[in-house]
Amino acid sequence: MRFIQAKIDGFGKWVDKTFTFSEQGLTCLFGENEAGKSTLQQFVLYMLFGLPPRKRNFYQPKSSNRIGGTLTIQDDRLGIYTIERVGDQVRCLMDNGEERDENWLHEYLKGMSREVYTSIYAFSALDLVHIRRMKAEQLSNVLFSVGLTGATSIYQVERQLTNKLGHLFKKAGRKPVINEQLKLVESQYEALQTIREKEVTYQDKRAGKQKLEEELAEEQTNFENLQQTLYQKEKMLHVVPLLTDYHICKRKLNQFPTEMPFPEDGINRLQQLKNQLIPLTSERDILQKNIREYKEQITNLKAKMLPITVYEKAKAILKQKQSFEQLKMKINEKEQEKEQLSRLIQEQLHEIGLKELDFEQTVFPFHLERTWKEIKDTNLQLQQESERLAEEQHLLSEERNRLNEEEEKIQTQLMSEQETMELQQKINEYDFAQSAIQKEIQQKKQWTQWKQKQQRIANWVLIGTITSVSLSVILAILLQNDFMFIFPVFLGLAGFFLYFIIRKSVKEIDKDLTKKVLSTNLSKEKRAKYNKIIQEHQDLQANLKTIKNERTRLEFQHLKWEERKKLFNQKESHWMERLKREHELYPFLKQVEPTHWIELLHKIRQMKRMVSNKNEIEKLLAHLYEEKHASLQEIASFAKNIRWEKDTLSFAQIEELVESYEESQRLIKQNTELLQEAKQKIKALNEKIFAYEHEIDRLLKIANVQDEEAYFKVSREIKERESLLEQKTKLEQQIGSMFSNETIDDLLKKELNRPELEMNISQLKQKLEESQSSVTEKHKLLASIETEINQMEMSDSNSEATLYYQMERDKLEKLAKKWAVYQVAQEALQQAKETFQQKYLTEVIELTSTYFEQLTNGRYVRIYAPTASKLFQVEANNYVRYTVEELSQGTIDQLYVSLRLAISKVMSNRYSLPLMIDDAFVHFDEVRTRQIIHLLKELAQEQQILLFTCKKEIANELQTKNLISNVNV
């Protein structure tokens, strides 16, 4: 998979922004801090995996209501397709025009989640701190976590399991839950055994108890009947006030008129109008108050303003601020430039082994570079020509040997002239015979055609003769003339004679031609064989002639080669003389190859220019110091004119004076505008207030009242009527809930006699007291018997102790099962980690060693994975091992980067996804940065890499086609 283009409609700070990623595999996205690089990463993840609504709201653009965009992807199997996601809606647009949904995208990513992707294919500088203390268990957890879940939560799960197991049970612990439960079960069991030992026989007591319980049940039934009768009477007594209220409510309802006109929801509508009217009037009062304040502020501001002459003078001085700051910057820049030139001159002199006086006294004419370039080019041409001459000589020699070998081979295969003539004669004889045969075949074909024609003539003669004879005989018979019978006889003899003559001549000619063709039959195979031999002989002769021509050409080329060789020797001699002459003029060239003379000349001229530039800078600095002093003098004069009593007046203080004056002007203008705006608002508020007051009058008119008090009175009467209706309905429901439907109508129509009901209730209560007294006495007796039985039964301590014991034991079993589940989960997790580590750790460590060796330029050649007691170790190229704590911070970062790249590479065999790196090399120096960029370019040939950085030197290391700079634009 490779990202081609990300088009953002709206996401965080990005709105209508398009990013096109490099086709080279490695794309560097450069931008300062807060430029939006992290937001771009989150957009890519949002396109692939989406976001829940709460997190998606965090990336809602401030300047747009759109959120979403498209991500165009190239896949080896599917080609180019585009993921389009807007909010929760997502669709995949395929190259063939089809559309797919989010379920297809999830299946295509093979169940990959956002957490798995960020843990495998994304890391930053913040992740580089974890490797310093990493041991075998932590590394195993990292690989297991990355490979299966994609999150560091595996550590938390394992710690939670360990804590829960420790909380439940410890061998030597007291506070764990299972340990405490074991002690509680043991104590309950001991109490149960004590109670069981004290059990005695109590059957007699139980029999007396049973008889008393039967008597008590009978008395209890009588008591319940009396109680039920009393309950009915008390309900009727209780409903007397409700019936009274019901009739009173009914009489009050009859006092109200049947129709009471009032606007629908009139009170709320009136209140809403008043609520809307109150803030308007309040706002009008506030605006009037503001108008008075604006006028007062304008007067105060005008009184405090500086004189216009002081303001204009200060502003004129401020115009020189930028020039003054630029002057200071230019002075600093030139001083740094001077110092840098001095340092560069000393470095260059040390590099070429010269002193400044050496090249200052030496004259380098303008044509010297062309002269040295000619010497260099001549040297290169002579070397190339020498190589060409040697190569041509070798080729000519090989070609001559090849021609000699071919000529010898052809001479052995050639036939003699006699043999060639004999074979050609046989072929000619065969061709002559074949020509004769062809002529005879042609004659035979013509004869066959003539023969068929003669046979047809003979047949027609025979048919005509028979027909003529038959007709003549018939005619003679019809005419009965004997003389006419002679005519058919002669006609028949002539016809048959002619027929037999034609047949005989055809047979004789056919016999002669057949004999002649049979006597000239020859062999075609032999003729083809002879012809092939002759053709091969002719081909060999042609090849031999070609070889002779080639030999002549080679001799001519050899002569040309000798002439070029002679000319080369002359050129070489002339070049040596020029070289010697230059050595005499410039002795320091004797130690330098001619190929480097021009480079040396450029450096010497560059140093001379640098010395000249340094002198010019010193002159310029003197002039700049004079300008700076003049500006300071002007500021001092201004401070004296305005009687500035504080320290030296600065541009910032002058700027404050100007800003104070301009701020006063701005406030005056602002208050003036606010004053006009307030007047306009008061006018608009008066119009709105009039509209609301008109609507209030309309509501009063609907209710047929003149003022709000009468309006509210009508509203209260309507509410009172509705309340009475509601109260009537509620009373009916209350009365109906206490009695059945059969008696409710009678109760609503009549009034009950309260004194009579109270008398009946009093009599029933007296009977209940007598029954209650009897029940109480029997209860006391039963309680006495039960007390004795309970004392014998230890007051049910046996069953209670048994129950408590069983409950605590069940609780212990549940805790034990829970502990076993946690134990099995911990063992399964550990086994899964060990299995995954065995599968991937070796491959990851080997690949990490390869990357680490490349990043450190072979200084460290191998990495050893951490163990339970040791940290990461690295082996240098001198076979000395170092722990990770003994390495520098930059080398540790290189180690962790190598580990993350190795994990990404191993996992990419399963998920071929782009790798995103966010400023993971922020602590790298220049050398380490070049090394990691070189490694990333190699990895990018197989896997796309998106590198987000704010370091300009990293962006400079990459070519333009790999760089997307100014991400924040």
Low-confidence stretches: 145-153, 515-522
Please state the average pLDDT score: 77
Helix/strand class: alpha/beta
CATH architecture of the domain at 131-199 and 797-910: 3-Layer(aba) Sandwich
User: Can you identify the CATH class of the domain at 131-199 and 797-910?
Assistant: Alpha Beta
| Termini separation | 28 Å
Number of E strands: 14
Largest sheet features: 6 strands, antiparallel
Computed over alpha carbons, the radius of gyration is 62 Å
Strand content: 5-15%
User: How much helix is in the residues?
Assistant: over 70%
- From the 3D structure, determine the CATH topology of the domain at 131-199 and 797-910: Rossmann fold
Q: How many distinct helices?
A: 25
**Which word captures the global form?**
extended
Spatial strand arrangement across the major sheet? 2-1-4-5-6-7
Describe it for me?
The protein has 969 residues and is of the alpha/beta class. Among the domains are: 1-112 and 912-969, Rossmann fold (3-Layer(aba) Sandwich); 131-199 and 797-910, 3-Layer(aba) Sandwich (Rossmann fold); 203-262 and 712-792, no CATH class; 414-522. 73% of the residues lie in helices and 7% in strands. It has helices at residues 37-49, 53-58, 102-108, 114-121, 136-149, 153-168, 177-197, 203-254, 266-304, 308-318, 321-352, 356-361, 368-413, 417-479, 486-518, 524-585, 597-641, 651-702, 708-738, 741-749, 754-792, 797-855, 889-907, 926-939, 952-957, and strands at 2-11, 14-20, 26-30, 68-75, 79-86, 89-93, 99-100, 122-124, 860-864, 873-876, 881-883, 915-918, 945-949, 963-964. The strands form 3 sheets. It has a 6-stranded antiparallel sheet with strand order 2-1-4-5-6-7. Strands 8-12-13-3-14 form a 5-stranded parallel sheet. Helix 14 crosses helix 16 (524-585). Mean pLDDT is 77; it is low at 145-153 and 515-522.
